[in-house]
Design goal:
single chain; manganese ion binding; 385 residues; 2-isopropylmalate synthase; transferase; EC 2.3.3.13; alpha/beta; binds zinc ion; two-stranded parallel ribbon; binds 3-methyl-2-oxobutanoic acid; eight-stranded parallel β-barrel; amino-acid biosynthesis
């Protein structure tokens, strides 16, 4: 069965989240957990950007095994030298070079023509090839670039040794069917595409990063770039946990081999949230506090009878002990009975009904009914305080 490579950029694009700085030791701890989860590639940083980042990439490259380690560089010799210096001792080092390709970036940011960009990209890949044959090339803002130029650019860099061509939706502008079609068009128009892997890198400005990445996979992308908890520039990147769990949960649809250890997801997510200070919204898919919680009575009843009535994933699959039945104003008798059983309380029918009424009265007034609240109510019922 074919698979998709998971390229994690939490330590590079993820660290570009406004206000986030990770010290090398924090990056190392995250990288070790990423390796434990068996991602395929870790992009550890952008070594030319600071001495701290250089040291972090070096530390990850030298200490994290069983995974490719990538370092980012612009299409400049000094960037490439610095990237290689940092990453060279990895088991399998990768140099990732990028240059913008869209008319808007060429005109306003680079002030370069398409031919100048192409020559620059070719020279950079040739230069990187003196160090390694594991070279990734990214056409920044690819989703706002015409496919004729993209194909010309990709053909040229593949000819001089790029092994992965990355198609970023840098500003999160694409929509899924369009992005899928872009991948298809690039494949059709780039004559030597069989000599390279197609990667995608989607940003979440319209909340579509995961959907776009999945559309790209359906159309031939075999590497997907992600970050833990979806952190990154502006609205962030495609979330690692959402992509992996979508591919895992819907293997029936994607038919892809998942080699990652999904049971490491919860730990990884917590580690990244704690190190970066970027907390998660409660309803965040997969790793939010409510992702495996049920409050409505009908749902709780269903889940108690058979988990799969209202759960498409088992909490254990991402490394949690169990799901949660939250007791609140929407909860029903089944959830309360379940609670009594867990805490070893026995109530006759009459006491139970009276306790249930007291519980509902309290839940109507209080947003969060804690276990301690319920135990107080029970003691009240049993001992008539
Ligand atoms: O979003 C982007 O285009 C990037 C590139 C450097 C790959 O992060
Ligand atoms: Zn990016």
């Amino acid at each position: 069965m074919a698979g998709v490579k998971i390229f994690d950029t939490t330590l590079r694009d993820g660290e570009q989240s406004p206000g986030v700085t990770l010290i090398p030791e924090e990056k190392l701890a995250i990288a070790k957990q990423l390796a434990k989860m068996k991602v395929n590639v870790i992009e550890a940083g952008f070594p030319i950007s600071s001495d701290g980042d250089f040291n972090a990439v070096k530390m990850v490259a030298e200490n994290v095994k069983g995974v490719e380690v990538a370092a980012l560089a612009r299409c400049r010799k000094s960037d490439i030298d610095r990237a290689w210096e940092a990453v060279q001792h990895a088991e399998n080092p990768r140099i990732h070079v990028f240059i913008a390709s869209s008319p808007i970036h060429l005109e306003y940011k680079l002030q370069m023509s398409e031919d100048e960009v192409l020559n620059n990209a070719v020279e950079a890949v040739k230069y990187a090839a003196q160090y390694t044959d594991n070279i990734e090339f990214s056409a920044e803002d690819a989703s706002r670039t015409g496919t004729d130029f993209l194909a010309r650019l990709f053909k040229a860099v593949i000819d001089v040794g790029a092994k992965v061509i990355n198609i970023p939706d840098t500003v999160g502008y694409a929509v899924p069917s369009e992005f899928g079609q872009l991948i298809k068009d690039v494949k059709e128009k780039t004559p030597n595409i069989d000599q390279a892997e197609i990667s995608v890198h989607c940003h979440n400005d319209l909340g579509l990063a995961v959907a776009n990445s999945l559309a790209a996979i359906e159309n031939g992308a075999s590497q997907v770039e992600v970050s833990v908890n979806g952190i990154g520039e502006r609205a962030g990147n495609a979330a690692l946990e959402e992509i992996v769990m979508a591919l895992y949960t819907r293997q029936d649809y994607y038919n892809l081999d998942i080699t990652q250890d999904t049971t490491q997801i919860a730990r990884l997510s917590k580690l990244v949230a704690n190190s970066t200070g970027i907390t998660l919204q409660a309803n965040k898919a997969i790793v939010g506090a409510n992702a495996f919680a049920h409050e409505a009575g009908i749902h709780q009843d269903g889940v108690i009878k058979e988990r799969t009535t209202y759960e498409i994933m088992d909490a254990k699959t991402i490394g949690l002990d169990h799901n949660k039945l939250v007791l609140g104003k929407h909860s029903g008798r089944h959830a309360l009975k379940d609670f009594l059983e867990k805490y070893d309380y026995e109530l006759d029918q009459e006491s139970f009904e009276s306790f249930f009424k007291r519980f509902k009265d309290l839940a109507d007034k209080k947003k969060n009914v804690s276990n301690a609240d319920i135990i107080a109510l029970l003691d009240n019922e049993l001992y008539d305080y």
